[in-house]
Predict the structure.
Amino acid sequence: MEIALCGLPRSGKTTLWTILTGIEVPPGAKAETRKGVTRVPDERLLRLSEMYHPKKTTPATVTYVDVRPVERGQGRADNPVLAELRPADALVLVLRAWDDPADPHPEGSVDPARDLELIETEFLLADLDVAQRRLERLEALVKKAGRAEDRKEKELLAKVVGWLESERPLREAEFSAEERKLLRGYAFLTAKPLLVALNLPEDRTADLGRDAAELGLGDLASRPGHDFVALSAKIEQEIASLSPEDAAAFRADLGIEEPALDRLIRASYRLLGLISFFTVGEDECRAWSIPAGSTAREAAGAIHTDLARGFIRAEVVPWDRLLEAGSMAAAREKAWLRLEGKDYVVQDGDVVHVRHSG
Ligand SMILES: Nc1nc2c(ncn2[C@@H]2O[C@H](COP(=O)(O)OP(=O)(O)OP(=O)(O)O)[C@@H](O)[C@H]2O)c(=O)[nH]1
Ligand SMILES: [Mg+2]
């Protein structure tokens, strides 16, 4: 699963990407698409690991992509910069709230609410262009051949165009599962889950815990497919350069409870619709990512296709129950360990042991 960091020029995308992935970009490097893997911080996995002392602890990961900046006027179907965003499963939009006369804002002033609207508008225009072009072609096709599937797609795209013309992103539209599947091929930008990351100057630590509305960006958290995190790339950069003990002391000084970076990673993981389940043992404790709503057999398949094929039953216990019991055997004795069949819907935080044949 890939998350693209997008935003206007000089908003702090590459700075954030470097902290997320640990990959340095040399100054003056040319603007290009860069991918890097980030571990998803998970207190639950750490606690399980403290219990098992495994040789290896393996967290869930997500991939972040640093792309070229989005600029005013790019909102067209064939724009190559926006094309770099289309393969992403979700977007993090970096908004600049810091000022620096030596590094002027491309719009001439610092105004995150304006930038948010600017970018959303470019995405809307790009999607509208894609939908209108396809709709025109489908109208011609329907006239010529009259095929039912073309007619169905035409109706769906007319709905998409209508929605976009009312200036609302597609992530807020109500489509059936079938319609969503049809639309996936278009990779509409406004259909992708969007996490807005407000990049604050380092002296605004009091604003780090505030929500979007308090910071003048409207009610993002309650809109479907949206989320919001306030952070300071500069502060996160500093924290990343410290030892864990020094970083904790530094955060305590600033009154920051949880690193904003962890909140950003976890929020983007959630936006992707992913949950984690765990496998535990003396060799390895590991977090696995599956789409929310996955069954026990699908979870087994995430570990190995053979486990899905030979699936018999899954032994399941919530992570905190296992910790409380102290061992799988003790959890079984307390009847906290359940035997579940292939259709059991795996819950976030389940510890799963797959019984399988072959
Ligand atoms: N003062 C201050 N400077 C910042 C902050 N975040 C980033 N910068 C600086 O802004 C400049 C641009 O940062 P980048 O991370 O390269 O921004 P970008 O969005 O990747 O820029 P482009 O790729 O050119 O669009 C760098 O010199 C950063 O050090 C911040 O929070 N405060
Ligand atoms: Mg950059």
Observations:
- Residues 121-190 form a domain with the DNA polymerase; domain 1 fold (CATH 1.10.150.300).
